[in-house]
Write a structure and sequence with these properties.
single chain, Maf protein, seven-stranded mixed beta sheet, two-stranded antiparallel ribbon, 7 helices
């Protein structure tokens, strides 16, 4: 449970139904906690396959988030389960997480001075209520022109290691970003505005004042 998260009592919303986040991402946990919600973290045991040739990135993230959600929702039928999957896309190509310093440098060299897309697929499901909704959100991110020395210095921080595209907009990597068009939190890992609206529509959350 996330009742002890530092943001838990600050957010304007409260959970009505049990919410499960089917993700181990600390960034998604932090974003969801900023709403003031109590939720469980139960990552789906799913090995994500690479995207198929010709498959659209938007379709891929919807399929991955939907599968994560389904796995946990079938095991927790009364809960509202939230699954998400985020990819970084440059010129139609999905860029995963770097597996080495050299790979991270190659990614960042390609991204620097260009505009790429960050696409997150989201699925919400409650098996008992027979409710399942999916959507994707795309944000355009412009990165500054940066030379190899600057990028190597960033890689030396260790931050790019487990980040899609090799950078973290919410961390040290923020200095590489010159413009964001669309949802900032989507780049972090969860389009919080759309998720909040969907949870309200599912009557899984309410405003704090309404719960008193």
């Amino acid at each position: 449970m996330n009742t002890e998260h530092p943001h838990f009592k600050q957010g304007p919303f409260r959970s009505i139904r049990e919410i499960i986040l089917a993700s181990a991402s600390p960034r998604r946990q932090m974003l969801l906690a900023t709403l003031g919600l109590n939720f469980r973290v139960l990552p789906a045991d799913l090995k994500e396959p690479p995207i198929d040739p010709g498959e659209q990135p938007g379709h891929y993230v919807l399929e991955m988030s939907g599968e994560k959600c389904r796995i946990i929702a079938e095991q927790n039928t009364d809960s509202v389960v939230l699954g998400a999957d985020t990819v970084v896309v440059l010129d139609g190509e999905v860029m995963g997480k770097p597996d080495s310093r050299e790979h991270a440098l190659d990614m960042l060299l390609r991204l620097q001075g260009n505009t790429h897309e960050v696409i997150t697929g989201v699925c919400l499901q409650c098996t008992r209520m027979q409710i399942r909704t999916r959507f994707s959100v795309t944000t355009r991110v412009e990165m500054i022109p940066a030379d190899q020395e600057m990028l190597q210095a960033y890689i030396d921080t260790g931050e790019p290691r487990d980040k899609a595209g090799g950078y973290a907009i919410q961390g040290v990597g923020a200095f590489l970003i010159s413009a964001v068009t669309g949802s900032y939190t989507n780049v972090v890992g969860l389009p919080l505005d759309r998720v909040m609206q969907a949870l309200l529509q599912l009557e899984a959350i309410c405003l704090q004042a309404d719960s008193q």
